[in-house]
Amino acid sequence: YDGAAPKDEL
Amino acid sequence: MNIFRFLGDMSHILSFVILLLKITQGKSAAGISLRTQELYMIVFCSRYLDLFWNFSSLYNSFLKVVFIACSSAIVYIIRFKSPQKDTWNPELDNFPIQYLIGPCAVAGLLINQDWTPFEMIWAFSIYLEAVAILPQLFLLQKQGEVENLTSHYVAALGAYRGLYLMNWVYRYFTEDDYLQRIVWFAGTVQTGLYIDFFYHYYQSKRGGLSRPVKLP
Fold first, then answer.
1. Residue B112: its chain A contacts at CB < 8 A?
2. B22, B36, B56, B120: which is deepest, by most CB within 10 A?
3. What is the value of ipTM here, to two decimals?
4. B78 CB contacts (<8 Å, ≥6 apart)?
């Protein structure tokens, strides 16, 4: 899974 | 932050403004799906739970609050406020949203980033947002002809999704380690749902004419 996915979008 | 992302957020805000104007100034919620608005409220309230512990920017946090506030206000007005509540037609706006919420909840439990409760809720909100427009599109389809402001509202939402898609492509090529398959998949599905609407929107607005959108 996407460990690096940033939660900086809305 | 890139231009696609920024314009995407702006057109998302524009969609809220159009809808709020329509129902407060026009005093009518005719043609607007309360079901879709309720789904958006669920989407924002669940995804932005992390307002309490995640901080990435003031811009993000502010817009999260704006989105929750706007979608709640819209639901409140259509459901409880006169005269708007009397213009909502439950027989027309009767999409069975439990069939959207249920499968999205299951998908959120099964397919998420790292099996923590918030990641499950977060994934659920991403899946639910992808299909939240369906009750609205079905309502428009039933009516056949779409009022101008309503069509601008759906168009602004569609533009927001399209611009986010471009934002992901841009970020993929300009950033290292930028990968979010769940968001990309759901976002692509979501954008796809607007294609048919945009075709008819374009047909009725081209040449500077402002005819109402007609759906077959």
1. 1
2. B36
3. 0.84
4. B23, B29, B32, B34, B37, B84, B85, B88
- Beta-bridge mates of residue B145: B214
> From the CA of A2, how many Å to the nearest CA of chain B?
6
Q: Is the pLDDT of residue A5 over 70?
A: no
Q: How distant, in Å, are the alpha carbons of B43, B64, B143, B182 from that of B151?
A: 22, 25, 12, 29
Rounded to the nearest 10 degrees, how much is the dihedral formed by the CA atoms of B160, B163, B168, B172? Answer: -170
Q: In whole angstroms, what is the distance from residue B91 CA to residue B12 CA?
A: 28
| Confidence band for B183, pLDDT divided at 50, 70 and 90 | very high
Q: Which tens digit of pLDDT belongs to each residue from B16-30?
A: 999 999 999 999 999
Structure tokens, B31: 């043609």
Helix axes B134-143, B148-174, angle to 10 degrees: 150
What is the residue-wise DSSP string for B146-172?
E-HHHHHHHHHHHHHHHHHHHHHHHHH
What is the Cα–Cα distance from B87 to B119, expressed in whole angstroms?
A: 38
A7 interaction partners in chain B (CB closer than 8 Å): 50, 54, 56, 122
**Mean pLDDT rounded to a whole number for chain B:** 95
